Amino acid sequence: MDLNDTPAAPALGLREAKKRETRQLISDHATRLFIERGFEHTTIAEIADAARVAKKTVTNYFPRKEDLALDHQDEFVAALAVTVTARGADETPLTALRHAFLAAVAAQDPVAGFAGEAFTRMIADSPTLTSCLRGLHDRREEALTAALADTTGTPPDDITPRTAAALLGGVHRVLFTRIQELTLAGHPNPRIAEVLAREAPRAFDLLTPALAEYGRRARA
């Protein structure tokens, strides 16, 4: 073993830790300014000044201004597809997604919509972020289509996975919007979770006639 190489791993770890720290610092200052001033009225230069970094540093970490406000968008887009891909042998996509959503409600997961009134209002008051959120829902449905096609051995351009993804994605979109509505009405997260724990099963039940057996894996 080359002894000159041994410090590389810890050094890399420190560099990565510093990058994550800088990224989080920028994100925190951006969120604060967006909430205080509004997304449309906050500039990248103001965020850089608040975080005490160069403007170029901000754009290196967040290429688009929207990325600063919605910095968990990759997780959001992938969530449904990941759940379907990792589902148990006896689970259909419908049951897997139903269980995952109810677990997210119980945990009051921000990615599921439990982002708090200030953050939710920031998005609702911004035409740019509202449009971006619609695009994220569309991308999430596209990712779900691919996952359904892959796990059922169906071509991704086939009508069946596309339709199933539209139905499943549509329910999640409705429930996400419901959480936003209750948040903007001033209800605290625990109360919203209580409401969604009652309403979400009713929403998923509407899909049961069509999707109860769709995607069930054949037993060996």
- Given as residue ranges, the uncertain stretches (5+ residues, pLDDT < 50) are 1-7
Q: Structural class of the secondary structure composition?
A: mainly alpha
Characterize the overall form. Answer: globular
DSSP helical segment count: 11
In terms of DSSP E residues, the strand content is under 5%
Distance between the termini: 47 Å
N-to-C order of helices and strands: HHHHHHHHHHH
Helix content: over 70%
Annotation, overall tally of beta strands: 0
Biggest pleated-sheet summary: none
Keywords: DNA-binding, Transcription, Transcription regulation
DNA-binding region: 43-62
InterPro entries: Homeodomain-like_sf, HTH-type_TetR-like_transc_reg, HTH_TetR, MftR_C
Pfam families: TetR_C_14 (PF17754), TetR_N (PF00440)
Verbal overview:
Helix content is 72%, strand content 0%. By secondary structure, the chain is an all-alpha fold. Helix 1 (8-37) packs across helix 2. The longest helix is centred in the first third of the chain and has 30 residues, at 8-37. It starts with 7 loop residues before the first helix and ends in a 9-residue tail after the last helix. It comes from Streptomyces salinarius. Pfam families: TetR_C_14, TetR_N. Keywords: DNA-binding, Transcription, Transcription regulation. Residues 43-62 bind DNA.
